[in-house]
Write a structure and sequence with these properties.
The chain is an alpha+beta fold and about 675 residues long. The chain has four domains: about 375 residues, Peptidase S8/S53 domain (Rossmann fold); about 60 residues, Alpha-Beta Plaits (2-Layer Sandwich); about 90 residues, Immunoglobulins (Immunoglobulin-like), CATH 2.60.40.10; about 120 residues, Galactose-binding domain-like (Jelly Rolls). It has ten helices and 37 strands. The strands form nine sheets. Strands 22, 29, 30, 31, 32, 33, 34, 35, 36 and 37 form a ten-stranded antiparallel sheet that branches. The chain has a seven-stranded parallel sheet with strand order 10-11-9-12-14-15-16, sandwiched between helices. Strands 4-5-3-6 form a four-stranded antiparallel sheet, covered by helices on one side. Helix 6 runs parallel beside helix 7. It is elongated, with a radius of gyration of 34 Å.
Length: about 675
């Protein structure tokens, strides 16, 4: 059908389990398929004891001496209803009228007659997520290699949701806008998860004056009413919402962030239920985004898309002030070449999500793109809540596939992070960086997803930086060649210490007390080769970054002063017969050589590293090396052609101290010659 100019109809990005058995051409039409048939239902109706979204309740303690009449006056002035007295702590519980809890909290904290005011937090019963009735089916949460839909998984090909839930189930104060088709909050897995408009009553009036009458739990922008779920039409949004926030109640499934609150914003409908084309328009999505933004929602899930990238929708997303998590699409296409929007918008607050299977590979239907797709998450064989319909009069659970269900995994992890670090919700680009920076790079995803990133909830919640590191060490590199004014050196440092493992290291240097310069922003290696001048001083330091992206403190500083001591320099002591040979290939224009067995040369010095520069050739034998009186090694000097300025011996220490290095001529295989060129000391 033709579409009006600058308007694009959008469909849910879902591939149904049944569709995968169809010819490949069916996959291109996956968005137009209906909900999966035959939902699973438990043997008994799941009990619903989930924590609901908290109201704007505050606990207030007034200044000493504030009597009942004065407290009543304060409540009237601040438009507060008293809910309860707490005499044990000399406080009371109040709820604001006509404004948000955040605004009331700020107003009360500014009053001189209020000693303390805090949000009334809602607590939940601690329940083991593995006790959920369908836990073993949720391989994306915790993968032990268990078979799913007949396919044996790969252990740990998951997002570490079990480990994350041990830290936090999320918070009801974190609201996610599910912009989709409807959400069935009567489903036992979603009971109590609905956002409630604090300024609206179900009384047929627009109490908050926002233009939407009785928008208690959200709005239906498709039909223009307050019904956020239409029976026998909507199912996709319920599965998405359940993947994010299904309650931790011992029954059914559990969401990635089960304490999170869901705002239901409907603008989609299955095409067969919408022959007039009333739903799925950009303009409706824009309205939904604006609605969520007006209520300060900072997380939005968009498991839908289309081929046209209209600028109006992009502008709405960018102005939302929210992290906008979107499905990459199910066309098995490269969106870098064949875009799918909104995933392909180049907006700083968008996270585009591909789908993986239970073996950690990109799902066969998933779109890809090393530029346009930001991260991958579980999206094949996902077990999620499904609402009742005309054929199944009670709600249940269904197997579903699609990037539609990979996106809510990312949204759920973002909600967990927002619960632990609420300030991150105010800066969606920082939150986005947190999700991407804490992802696990997977070799099999490198060619399909930017950075090969796989979502990891446990890492995203790790805010503990690596432990402080000691100063790096440095030594001239042996073997290497000595430059006319430089020497090659190797910086090395011990592996950092972190509870979840190390990621990379940043290395910096400065010369002669100047400004610090970055040698590398991120290397996983424990060493870095550099070239240093034989005049002037150097300082080096290392900063660790753990696997979750947390930067540790800068290490202690390594300071070195490289100096060259020629073969005739002060402190060089010879034993036995040595002669001088002039040569242009030598460091100082000459070497000292010997052919006498046992002839020696030594240098006493103070420093943290030393190197010996030698000449090699067809008549050269070997030298025994002693450091501080202890035999270290024997170094061979043979080469088929003469070579000068060869750094063949190097020794280093963690701190500068007094040392002695001694070399003793040890002829080998009839070759008796040994040539000393110079020493290099790092002081």
């Amino acid at each position: 059908m033709s579409l009006p100019a600058r308007r694009a109809r959008l469909f849910p990005l879902v591939v149904l389990t049944l569709a995968l058995a169809a010819p490949s051409s069916a996959l291109a039409r996956d968005a137009e398929l209906g909900p999966p048939a035959g939902p699973w239902r438990p043997s008994a109706d799941p009990a619903s004891s989930p924590p609901g979204s908290p109201s704007s309740r505050l606990i207030v303690r007034y200044r000493s001496g504030t009597g009942a009449a004065e407290r009543a006056r304060i409540r009237a002035a601040e438009q507060l209803d008293r809910l309860a007295n707490l005499p044990s702590i000399d406080a009371e519980v109040v709820r604001p009228r006509g404004r948000s809890g955040t605004a009331a909290l700020a107003a009360l904290r500014s009053r001189s007659d209020v000693e303390l005011v805090v949000p009334d937090q809602r607590r939940t019963i601690f329940i083991d997520p593995t006790a959920e009735e369908a836990w073993s089916a949720q391989w994306g949460h915790h993968n032990t290699g268990q078979p799913v839909q007949g396919v044996t998984g790969r252990a740990d090909a998951d997002v570490d949701a079990l480990e994350a839930l041990a830290i936090t189930p999320g918070s009801g104060s974190v609201v996610v806008a599910v912009i989709d088709d409807g959400v069935d909050f009567s489903h036992p897995d979603l009971s109590g998860r609905a956002w409630t408009n604090p300024l609206e009553l179900a009384n047929g009036l627009d109490d908050d004056g926002n233009g939407y009458v009785d928008d208690v739990n959200g709005w239906d922008f498709c039909n223009g009413d307050n019904s956020v779920h239409d029976f026998d039409q909507d199912w996709h949004g319920t599965a998405v919402a359940g993947t994010i926030a299904a309650s931790l109640d011992g029954r059914g499934t559990v969401g990635v962030a089960p304490a999170t609150t869901i705002m239901a914003l409907k603008f989609l409908k299955n095409p067969e239920d919408d022959p007039a084309g009333a739903c799925g328009w950009d303009s409706q999505a824009i309205e939904a985004i604006a609605y969520a933004s007006r209520f300060g929602v900072r997380l939005m899930n968009a498991s839908w898309g289309g081929p046209s990238g209209e600028p109006m929708l992009e502008t709405a997303i960018e102005r939302s002030g929210a992290l906008f998590v979107t499905a990459a699409g199910n066309d098995a296409a490269n969106i870098d070449a064949i875009p799918s929007y909104p995933a392909a918008y180049d907006s700083a607050n968008i996270v585009a999500v591909a789908a993986t299977d239970n073996r950690g590979a990109l799902a066969p239907f998933s779109n890809r793109g090393v530029v346009g797709v930001d991260i991958a998450a579980p999206g094949k064989d996902i077990f999620a809540p499904c609402p009742a319909d005309a054929t199944s009069r009670s709600p249940g659970w269904c197997w579903v596939d699609g990037t539609s269900f990979a996106a809510p995994y990312v949204t759920g992890v973002a909600a967990l992070v927002g619960a632990v670090r609420p300030a991150l919700l105010a800066t969606p680009t920082t939150l986005r960086g947190r999700l991407l920076g804490s992802a696990v790079p997977v070799a099999g995803l490198q060619a399909t997803v930017a950075g090969g990133r796989q979502l990891n909830a446990r890492r995203a919640l790790d805010f503990n930086p690596p432990a402080a590191m000691s100063a790096p060490r440095s030594s001239p590199i042996a073997p290497s060649g000595l430059g006319s004014t430089t020497v090659a050196a190797r910086l090395s440092w011990p592996a950092g210490r972190d509870d979840l493992g190390m990621g990379t290291y940043r290395v910096e240097q400065r010369r002669n007390g100047g400004s610090w310069q970055t040698l590398t922003t991120g290397t996983a290696a424990l060493s870095r080769d550099v070239v240093v001048s034989l005049s002037g001083s150097y300082e080096f330091r290392v900063q660790p970054r753990d696997a979750a992206g947390n930067l540790g403190p800068l290490s202690a500083v390594l300071r070195i002063l490289p100096i060259r001591i020629e073969e005739s320099g002060t402190g060089v002591v010879y034993g036995g017969t040595w002669r001088t040979a002039s040569t242009t290939t030598a460091s100082g224009g000459a070497t000292r050589y010997t052919s006498s067995t046992g002839a020696s040369v030594s240098l006493a010095f103070t420093g943290r590293a030393v190197a010996v520069v030698l000449a090699t050739g067809p008549a050269s034998g070997s030298l025994k090396v002693y450091v501080d009186g202890r035999y270290v090694r024997t170094v061979g000097l043979y080469s088929s052609t003469p070579k000068g300025r060869r750094v063949l011996v190097a020794q280093s220490w963690s701190t500068a101290a007094s040392h002695t290095i001694k070399l003793v001529n040890a002829p080998y295989n009839g070759r008796t010659r040994a040539d000393l060129d110079a020493f290099v000391v790092f002081r």
